[in-house]
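Handout, section 4.2: multi-component inputs.
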Amino acid sequence: MAESDAVSSLERLGLTGYEARVFIALQKLGSGTARDVHRVAEVPRSQVYSAAENLEERGLVEVQQSNPMRYRPVSIETARSILRERFEREQERAFDYVEGVREEHSDDGEEQEDIWTVRGQEHVEDRIVELIREAEESVIFGTPDPDLMTETIETALRDREKAGLYVGVVSVDEGVRNRFADDAVLTTVPPPPFSGDTSIGRVVRVDGKGVLLSVLGEEDVSGINRETAFWSVETNFASALIELMNSSFDSFDRKV
Amino acid sequence: MAESDAVSSLERLGLTGYEARVFIALQKLGSGTARDVHRVAEVPRSQVYSAAENLEERGLVEVQQSNPMRYRPVSIETARSILRERFEREQERAFDYVEGVREEHSDDGEEQEDIWTVRGQEHVEDRIVELIREAEESVIFGTPDPDLMTETIETALRDREKAGLYVGVVSVDEGVRNRFADDAVLTTVPPPPFSGDTSIGRVVRVDGKGVLLSVLGEEDVSGINRETAFWSVETNFASALIELMNSSFDSFDRKV
DNA sequence: GCACTGTTGTTATGAGACTACTAACAACAC
DNA sequence: GTGTTGTTAGTAGTCTCATAACAACAGTGC
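Output:
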């Protein structure tokens, strides 16, 4: 990994560029003067003093009031702890407030014809896992692509089955179906059109009233398919799509 | 807590000010259009679009491509996970690099007359815990102030005692000594001058070659004593201070 | 069907804050 | 006498904040 990547990461963890470079330089040196750090980090020497002082205030660096002044980093474990504690503190602070002001809309009973879009494989997966976890009666999950049956989803499905829900997995891929061979999870092969070449990525149906459908788009630069999911719960759209799915998944409907 | 505090926390977690305010507004609304968000968050309406798009790219908001466009936040749990995963990813990335370039200086055998300064109660405690955890033979910890015998330090001392090290606790405060009544930790009352009025906060001696001495300064604005620690390991200064301590802690010396 | 008004989504631009970077200098060490 | 140290000042660049403008569209009244 390049040092510039590490610097960028430390910047995203809350340090300025100079602070990050000084911190890394001190890790390399073990300890050193401003001049030592300036040479290794290529930070202007006059800026090393304030950057190191800021790091000291953060607890990431210790100072020896000698002549010249010497600096040393705290241990990596201590640095990690300090950054983690800062993160946890800000996270608690932010979300304590957010939880307090959050309006609960899920039980106002008003049906909204909402179809929501989620972009990016990672976020699609977050939404899928959330839908699975919130299911109360049944979950059906389908994908033709074994790579899209991730361990996180697999775990979430098992957890729901263990919680007493009806859980079904649909896939043309035998490997996907076999992952649940030891569980009380019903697996089956989907009928056409779901078994042909398709850009459908993943399909989820929960409780007979919620549905998610993802499609795979063009590869982005990292070589991973760009995935976009559309999902909806308790809407006419969801009902219609579920009807469509039901007529294709006869082997499941009798049980749900 | 004021909303501005929550906004500042979200900023420190990597969001811009507008993004944080849009996110909080959507939590309040449940879902809404740019106009709704603009009204609640007092963010200029034209800026709501790009802020919401950035949040969507981060996975924190979902978009409904309706007319007008509607936005909704992901659940608090999902938002926390996303921010945590980002933090963990940057932390791993930064420290993978740092661990790779870190010079191991602790075993180069070269004696340095280094005395290091740590400021701030929290950071002093980090250093104390680290010294305790790195001890190999013995640890002696002393403080007159029960508040400075924190649970973290208490736990660290017990862990070392269970690991077979000789552990001693020195305090004029009976409550501090009593916390170790059930452990194989030797406790004692310090002799003068350590038993009089003092600005000494905490004292640590590890392995007969490392020492830390903290002093309490003026209260800062939060009402907590400003604590500064000086510590040194394997130096003549440390040896001299340990000799001074040894002559005052006779009941310990015979065992270490 | 048309005119008018309000809304939407997009784009552009300047101000302010923060960080990066350079320069200068008094005091000091060697 | 020279080089180093620690501090301070100032400018440039970048990012975010904040305002303004506008084409296109939706809704409403006649």
